[in-house]
Write a structure and sequence with these properties.
Elements lengths: L8 H26 L6 H23 L1
Helix pairs in contact: 1-2
Length: 64
Amino acid sequence: MVEVKKLSRLHKDYLTSFLRSQLTTLQNVLSSVENSERYDDEYLEESMRRIEQDIHRFRKVYNN
């Protein structure tokens, strides 16, 4: 059974802020790929790595 937690206002604000930040980064990467014949592999790789690290850190903090 899935546990459903009620979010406090502080947790909700933190969660929405974090998700919005990740969404913005992903939208920037998507735009870069869509709007170019060639895209910067280094930028793409670094952005994706940063997103993965941020999500990993967020899960660790949120689960504790």
